[in-house]
Amino acid sequence: MNEKGTGILIDSKDADIILVDTEGQIVYDDIGNYRYFQLGMTSARGKNIRELFCDLPENYPLLRACQRGETVEHFREVMTTGRGVKLTKTGSCYPVYDGEELVGAIEIGKFYYGKENMREIEQHSGHMFYRKNQTRYMLDDIITQDPGMMEIKSRISSIALSNANVLIYGKTGTGKELVAQAIHNSSRRYSRKFLSQNCSAIPESLLESVLFGTTKGSFTGAVDGMGLFEEAEGGTIFLDEINSISPEMQAKLLKTIESKKIRRIGSDRETHVDFRVVAAVNEDPADLIRAKRLKPDLLYRLAVVYIKLPDLMEREGDIELLTRHFIDYFNEKTHSHIAYPSKEIIEVFQSYSWPGNVRELRNVIEGAFAFAENDKIERNDIPSYILEAEPSREVRTGSDGSLKEHMTQLEREIVLEAFHRKHQNLTDAAEILGISKQLLRYKLDSYQEEKDEAEESV
Prior knowledge:
Distance between the termini: 80 Å
Shape: globular
Strand content: 15-25%
């Protein structure tokens, strides 16, 4: 089949594509979120375009293109899916010809939510190219201007092309899975699956079968089934909160990672599998080792590359940057025009400690966005616990100076304390700070320059 006429307009990286025959039967589709239409749906192929919506107009552009050969560019339609979700769709439709014969049409478009359906947005991939590998995030989705986070992004670019295992340490909401997906999508494994499992989310008795698979008859109701390691053949498996599993399971995990062989429950046969492991913990690995909650051998095997994610309050300038980013994101997805918050609200955000980190900030913006009126976020759209919270430690450290100055001073204290605690050993100090030796050296040199300038001015 070939298309005749005007060139196809694709103005977005997350365009949805539907190809139909002359009856409106879908022969190919790439839609970011099939949950729009039916829970559990993974493809619309074989359905008629009329089945996706309960109020599809008879003159819908795709029907005009496939039945009458019309080209319709930059259309906008408001429709309701079979699930009752009202969506706005924009896009362009083009007839498809085989020689001179009209054989169908292609639609390239985007769906937009109403504010009442904002929870659906989290399920929608923003990157069409990566939908098939079960990821949503790439390296560019790490939004930051903080030097430490920029250093982490640089490290991801460097280590992604290797097959080295990675251990990520970060508190709740710092973006561990985002980083894991960025590593996968920057690697040569990007076209294969990325599989994720939170090890604390299911009982350990089930975790073993989830990871390693089962053999029919190995226990009541057992069937032959692949585990995540087998499914991740050629790809990446992300194991979050590995500190939640028992020493016995950690030992089995270590053996699997070292040998790259798995044995299903109830089987006496080992299978070689090619996978890369990215693991994460939400507590300091050194504390876990001391408490005997993480086996040292497993830590050393996983932490070939070690990444420590900073708390949101430690990220210079990122609170305002991320606030603007999330507002832009929800505006784009809902076709809204909410303005950036006032300086007063930004100052409230900057004085709050954000124990839930970036995830908490996103949820606060989502809630404020849903209630905002007159295209503006007001104080009463912000949760009271944030408005009433005491200023964070960084703000309380002095009565004078900006938040940035207080945070810079606090960072300096932390860096120098770590450097001296590790007897001025760059490698050891950089490791506990979760930054590179080069970045640590840069910071120490800048502190020395400031000291020299202060002494000269006396």
